[in-house]
Design a protein that fits this description.
Layout (H helix, E strand, L loop, with lengths): L1 E10 L2 E10 L10 E6 L10 E3 L1 H9 L3 E2 L1 H15 L1
Parallel strand pairs: 1-5
Antiparallel strand pairs: 1-2, 2-3, 3-4
Amino acid sequence: MVVIRLSRSGAKKRPFYNFVVTDSRNRRDGRFVERLGFYNPVASGAEEPLRIALDRLEYWKQNGAQVSPTAARLVKQYVTKVAA
């Protein structure tokens, strides 16, 4: 099954997450099909905390990809921010 989830990178105590499309059997930080955006929970100042390619997200959802609960929460947050 294809899933859209977060993949962690960054240094210790400085997390940085990539939104990725991957096979559910792959490791969390392993191989992925496509990178859709990023989430930086420790962004400060003028740094952008969240960016998602919504057109690609919709493409993958239409083709059967499942969105993880955390990724779905962040997508909802991003959509309301962009719409405002």
